[in-house]
Amino acid sequence: MTKTELRKYYLNQRKKLAPQEVNTQSTAIQLKLIELLKDKPPAYLHVFLPILKNNEIDTWQVIQHIWYNMPQTQVVTSVTDFKRKVMLNYLLKPDTVLIENSWGITEPQGGTPVADALIDWVIVPLLCFDQHGYRVGYGGGFYDRFLARCTPKTKKTGVSLFSPVALISDTDQYDIPLSHCITPTETYIF
Ligand SMILES: Nc1nc2c(c(=O)[nH]1)N(C=O)[C@@H](CNc1ccc(C(=O)N[C@@H](CCC(=O)O)C(=O)O)cc1)CN2
Ligand SMILES: Nc1ncnc2c1ncn2[C@@H]1O[C@H](COP(=O)(O)OP(=O)(O)OP(=O)(O)O)[C@@H](O)[C@H]1O
Fold this sequence. Notes:
Bound molecules: the ligand Nc1nc2c(c(=O)[nH]1)N(C=O)[C@@H](CNc1ccc(C(=O)N[C@@H](CCC(=O)O)C(=O)O)cc1)CN2, adenosine-5'-triphosphate
CATH superfamily: NagB/RpiA/CoA transferase-like
Strand content: 15-25%
Largest sheet: 7 strands, mixed
Pfam family, one: 5-FTHF_cyc-lig
Number of strands: 11
EC number: 6.3.3.2
Strand order of the largest sheet: 3-2-1-6-9-10-11
CATH class: Alpha Beta
Catalytic activity: (6S)-5-formyl-5,6,7,8-tetrahydrofolate + ATP = (6R)-5,10-methenyltetrahydrofolate + ADP + phosphate
Enzyme class: ligase
GO molecular function: 5-formyltetrahydrofolate cyclo-ligase activity; ATP binding; metal ion binding
CATH architecture: 3-Layer(aba) Sandwich
């Protein structure tokens, strides 16, 4: 299926879930993610802050775990510039002042900027992924642009409420595949 078809189908599947279900699945995913990060703690981990009204996977347990148990890892998150289609990255600390933008994304209000080249692991939001590690998001190309500016060694871990589809049929030269994807029941390595 194409990205457009998959986006429509999985947006609808996600909308149908009860918040309590998303909560349970988010916890299962986050426990797996914490185990994966413990193996080789990154220096700078980029984490998206969830749009909870869209039933996105909650990432706050992972963030708290890092803050209080993994002092060698700095948490990084973005301010999204929708006009220029870019994500600007900043440190996320327990005392960072956060504000919600018009899309429901919580964003740091300024702070310490982090260069893309420093980020060695990225947790990637998605609507669906395939057995080759390609993903479909909301369609803005924000993560494709951001991941292109990271180093080739940067780990890219998708998190998904749903199992993979066989194939996204219309991937293009801009699509950057994931290195892992975590679902509530499995960790896929690509
Ligand atoms: N938490 C989070 N932050 C992120 C992303 C993401 O997917 N999740 N992005 C990833 O690229 C970028 C922002 N892109 C976005 C694009 C569209 C919508 C949005 O709300 N779109 C739909 C509603 C979706 C729904 O019904 O569930 C809309 O157009 O109304 C939000 C963020 C950067 N930051
Ligand atoms: N590095 C890039 N430079 C220019 N255009 C890009 C780049 N990356 C992606 N695009 C364009 O952005 C558009 C959206 O891409 P795509 O459908 O893959 O988004 P997505 O991965 O679902 O969205 P997101 O990354 O925001 O979750 C496509 O037209 C794609 O060609």
